[in-house]
Every structure is written in C-alpha cells, then in structure tokens.
Amino acid sequence: MNYVGCTIRGPLATQIRSYAGAAAAATQSTATSTSSPSISSTLILSRLPIITQDLTPFESQFYKYQSELWRRLMWTFPKWFYFKQGTMAELRYRQINKNPVSYNPKLPNWPKGKPDLKHLRDRRFRQYIRVPKTYREEDEIVEGQDQSEFKENEISRKIVPASRITEADKRNDLTSLERKLSRTLYLVVKDNGTDWKLPTFKEQSENLQPLHVLAEEGLYELGGKKINYFNVSKVPCHHNKNKEYFIKSHILSGTFEPQSNSIQYQWATKEELKELLPSEYYSDISHLLSDV
C-alpha cells in the first residue's frame, strides 16, 4: 500500500507536530550545550598559617602556671660552676645578685614567713638570676660611642623574638599576604562593581579542558604568573546548582598582581569572608573553609 502524497489531518497531525517541535528543541538545546558549556571552575586559593595559633585566655593561664611551677621546683642556679670564685666575672655577678636575708631567730617576726635558705637561695620563692651582659640595649647605646668591644660578643647578644603583628596588620593592608600570620587567608576578587567572590573561570572554548587546568590558566590570566601554588587534588571538592566546581589550592610563594585595573582583590579570613561574600554564596561554601 502506497501512502506517498497523502495528507494527514485531525488530532493525529497535531500530535505529530508537537513531537516534532519537542525533538527540534531538544536537538537545539543539545547543540547549544555542546558548543557553549555552562560549567565553570572556581579556585579556593588559600595561604596556610605561617606561625602558631594565638592562645586562648585559658591556654595562656595554663602555660603560665606550668612555667611558674617548673621554675619553683627547679634546682638552685649553680653559680660556682659558671662563675669561678675570685674572678672578675664572679665579682660582677655578686654585684647584681644580692644574697637573700638569712633567718635570725632574734628578730620578732617575719611578715613573709621563715626563710628557707639552701645554697644562698630562698626555696619558698622562684629564683631570679641576673647575668652580666656582654651587649647593650638600644636605649643604652650612646651615639658616637665605640661599640667594637660589644660587637665581638654578638654571639651572646639578647635574643628578641619577632612580633606576631606585622606592618601589614598595622596598616590593615587587606591585599598583603603578610597579614594575619596565624590564620588561613583566602583570595577573593571583584570586577567592575560586582559582588566579591572566589576566582571563577567559565569554559569558553569548544574543546573542553580539565577543571584544574581551566582554573590554573584562568588564575594566571587574572593575577599574573608570579604565583607559585599547587592544587590539593585534580578532583573538585564541591559543586553547586550553578555548575560551579570548586578546586582547592594553596599558595606557596609569589604574589597576586591583577592584570586589569578594574580587578580588586583581598586576602581574607573565614570571618572576613562572611562579611564580604553574599550570604547564600557563603553558606554554600562555609564548610570548605578553615576555622584556623
């Protein structure tokens, strides 16, 4: 039976046209998604803490108590070992370290209790020792005075630990990697008045790239190639409904230099990100951020 040239009318024709329209729309959607993918790679670039975490008030009190207890129970300082009797060093030591008052039963009362002396030390209290210095403090140096005799003994100079508060902290420079040394910092960017966000790079070419490669090339285009960093994994650690795949990375050295004048950036802690990022965006990624 030959149906060539026949015309289909009625409800069947309407149904066929609806199927054909749906198929065409699906084909067009598939072609569009193939030519222009909507996925993107988001980089969680962090700078790990450089120094130890700040102590809580309880931890400070605990370590102070342990230190005082250890010093209270320590042995008496053996001055006879370090300063030979009759030498100039021993004389200088005795000049700056006075012997404690010994117990005298003839005195009527002792406000702080009876002294318990052992090797010229009152064992009831912590022993404080002052050692003759071979260096001079900055406030003791007289301008124009010869310091050659002290420079010879620089090996015994006073050791002063560096401050935990840097110049970037004092200036409140949010673009510096030298701030908040005890905290984890994260890179956030903003372009042309948009909201702050983590660096996000969309797939633009027809040839799909691995997500970590897309993030790496995008970071170099955004902040220059003076960044030495590594990806924790090539596998994304998170994704959201906008098809953003998150890659965790750590910066090792270098600096972020925006390649466009319209780009603003900050290195922020988790608490600061809560103030910068949109609330919905932050709540979606907050579990990926470190509390330290």
Automatic annotation (TrEMBL):
Primary localisation category: mitochondrion
Record-annotated membrane-spanning stretches: none
Keyword Transmembrane: no
Domain (Large ribosomal subunit protein mL46 N-terminal): residue spans on this chain: 38-169
GO CC annotation: mitochondrial large ribosomal subunit
InterPro entries, per the entry: Ribosomal_mL46 (IPR040008), Ribosomal_mL46_N (IPR021757), Ribosomal_mL46_NUDIX (IPR033650)
GO terms of molecular function: structural constituent of ribosome
Family recorded in the similarity comment: Belongs to the mitochondrion-specific ribosomal protein mL46 family.
Protein name: Large ribosomal subunit protein mL46
Native species: Candida metapsilosis
